[in-house]
């Protein structure tokens, strides 16, 4: 698993695909720590890792949460909207953080609201998958399902990155 050479070209290609990513710029330019966490999550996606599901889902969940907290810090969100949506525990919700990023960009167009809400629901829906994959038996998700979740995580990071960047 530690980058040992494989004589199986199909397995080597699968490993390369699992470890490749389209969000290098979004994370590396924002935070070397978040980029390292993502690399660690990708490293866990190995055909021989029987617990890849738990490792990857836990890392991806924490990565998105940390990314949202970094692009929309508590102090900023509360300064802009002291009555923002909170979790049952009283923390600022992920939805409130994303809405803060959208507001900060300006030009929040009501016509786009339905699309943005649907996209946001999709991003937040990832957390159901993360929790499902992180809890329960080892190997809960196969590599095909984890690859699909990986693509969704990359899309979520790209979405949040785009809305968090003030033009």
Description:
The protein has 167 residues and is mainly α. It has 8 helices and no strands. The chain has helices spanning 9-19, 24-28, 32-44, 52-71, 74-80, 94-105, 113-134, 143-164. α4 runs antiparallel to α7 (113-134), α4 (52-71) packs parallel to α8 (143-164) and α7 packs across α8. The radius of gyration is 17 Å and the shape is elongated. The model has no long low-confidence stretch (mean pLDDT 80).
Radius of gyration: 17 Å
Shape: elongated
Q: Gap between N and C termini, in Å?
A: 42 Å
Q: What's the number of helices?
A: 8
| Count of strand segments | 0
Percentage of residues in helical conformation: 55-70%
Give the oligomer, counting copies of the same chain as homo and different chains as hetero. Answer: single chain
**Average of the residue pLDDT scores:** 80
Poorly predicted regions:
none
The largest sheet, given as strand count, sense and whether it forms a barrel, is:
none
Classification by helices and strands: mainly alpha
Q: Report the order of strands and helices.
A: HHHHHHHH
Strand content: under 5%
């Amino acid at each position: 698993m530690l980058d040992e050479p494989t004589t199986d070209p199909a397995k080597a290609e699968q490993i390369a695909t699992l470890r490749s990513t389209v969000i290098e710029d979004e994370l590396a330019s924002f935070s070397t720590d978040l980029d390292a966490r993502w690399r660690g999550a990708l490293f866990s996606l190995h055909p021989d890792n029987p617990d890849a599901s738990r490792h990857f889902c836990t890392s991806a969940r924490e990565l998105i949460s940390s990314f949202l907290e970094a692009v929309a810090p508590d102090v900023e969100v509360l300064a802009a909207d002291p009555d923002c949506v909170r979790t049952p525990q009283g923390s600022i919700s992920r939805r409130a953080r994303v809405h803060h990023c959208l507001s900060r960009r300006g030009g929040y167009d009501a016509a786009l609201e339905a699309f943005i809400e649907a996209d946001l629901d999709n991003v937040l829906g990832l957390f159901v998958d993360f929790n499902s994959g992180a809890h329960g038996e080892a190997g809960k998700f196969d590599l095909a399902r984890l690859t699909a979740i990986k693509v969704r995580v990359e899309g979520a990071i790209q979405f949040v990155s785009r809305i968090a960047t003030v033009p």
